[in-house]
Amino acid sequence: MVTKRRTKRRSKRASKTKSVAALVTAKPAQEAYRVSKVYTSPKSIPIAELPADYSRADLEFIRIDHSGASYEGRVFLNNPGADENTPTVEETGYAGSFYIFGHGGCFGDVGHCEVNGKKDAFDPRPSHPLEPIRKVVIATAAIKRAAAQSKEIGVTVVPIVVSWTEQTDLTNVMNFDHINLVAYD
Amino acid sequence: MAGLTLRKNVDSLTPEELQALREAYRKAQAIMDNRGYNYHAGLHGIPNWYCWHHDHVQGSNVNANLFLPWHRAYLLYFERAIRDQAPANAKVALPWWDWSSLASHTTGVPVAFSVPTANGQPNPLYRARIVAPTSNPPINRFTRRFPRNPAQLPSKQNVTDLLNLSQFNDFSTQLEGYHDGIHGWTGGNSGGPNPVGGDMGTVSTAAWDPIFWSHHCMIDRLWYLWQTKHGVNNIPPNLLALSLRPFALTVKDVLSINTLGYEYAVTLIQF
Hints:
The structure holds 2 protein chains of 2 kinds.
Chain A: E1 10-14, E2 34-35, E3 39-40, E4 45-46, E5 56-64, E6 70-77, E7 94-100, E8 133-138, H1 140-149, E9 152-153, E10 155-163, E11 178-184
Antiparallel strand pairs in A: 1-11, 2-10, 3-10, 4-9, 5-8, 5-11, 6-7, 6-10
Chain B: E1 5-7, H1 15-29, H2 37-41, E2 55-58, E3 62-65, H3 67-83, H4 102-107, H5 111-114, E4 117-118, E5 121-122, E6 129-132, E7 139-142, H6 156-163, H7 168-187, H8 211-230, E8 262-264
Parallel strand pairs in B: 1-8
Antiparallel strand pairs in B: 2-3, 4-5, 6-7
Helix pairs in contact in B: 3-8, 7-8
């Protein structure tokens, strides 16, 4: 039984774009990772859209591709220059991370990894495993800080790629449709 | 409760319990039919892709996140499979890996999984052979693992915050996020000029790495702890009748771990 219910969701949609960052391999084997294309939101979220008071604020990443490599998506607010070396602390606008457990590329025959929509209402099978997913970053403190410092909030996501297979394309790891900012009373 | 199997922290297993677990894994890994390790590992990603992660629509158009109940059923069947390979009095049970513990934040992967040999034999908890001839391309090799910096693992505070979330979907989504990160952390990659990824790092082969089962045992235990706090039946009712294919169980069937025959230690104080 649900004991607490949140109400009054308000959201703001930001469109998708991409900016290109270099592909970098770190030297120490224990911290080996790669960085794929960094995302910077083309539009900022006006602070006026946020409610006056909220107990929690989430950044929802909608329809994320999870077919390839596994990575950490580090989320920064109002720091369009963030990269793999940017410390994940509040002073840099770090809001949190989402993690993708990637499928590692395609290991089936031709067509195996094509995402097909449900065919009809009587189809009992689950939807395709590679249906894009949603990730939620609880970013309340970071959003409140950003709102206190600026009239707009821009979002940057740095993908730190940690694991992959030989079937995986590492040049374009992170893809999603848009971001919602959701505030709860 | 009498008769229930007690799942323990892997670091708390006695030497006899750890040896019994290793023997059960060793025997299961030698079996290539549907009783064996290779078969059960192959239900998750390659080649059968039954695993349930994130939201999916099934049957009645219910958009469901069955990550937690599906993996509870998966662990149950696997535990039974390895217990079948152990003497009846050994009471082999899956141990959990507490990746939020001080020990894990110091050494990373528990010693039980990180030593290549034990008692003069190859350690079946260190690696397993992936035999997937129908994969494209076919795979036949041992698992590989390149864990990252232990300081990056989730903390006790992360776990506390997680258990305080009161709505099932919210809790499941956040827990799955940590789960995803630990898979990437544990698999990692070999680094260097031609790096290869570790198998825990991608869905395709993660279940072959022996630590997969104890990672998911911790996930299942956290769901159990959340249920003790927020209610064992605290789950959207429209999910209850959904099947957890290929297992002969529904979501409702797996809500109570006691009815499934096992129990977790709620608090472990080691002194």
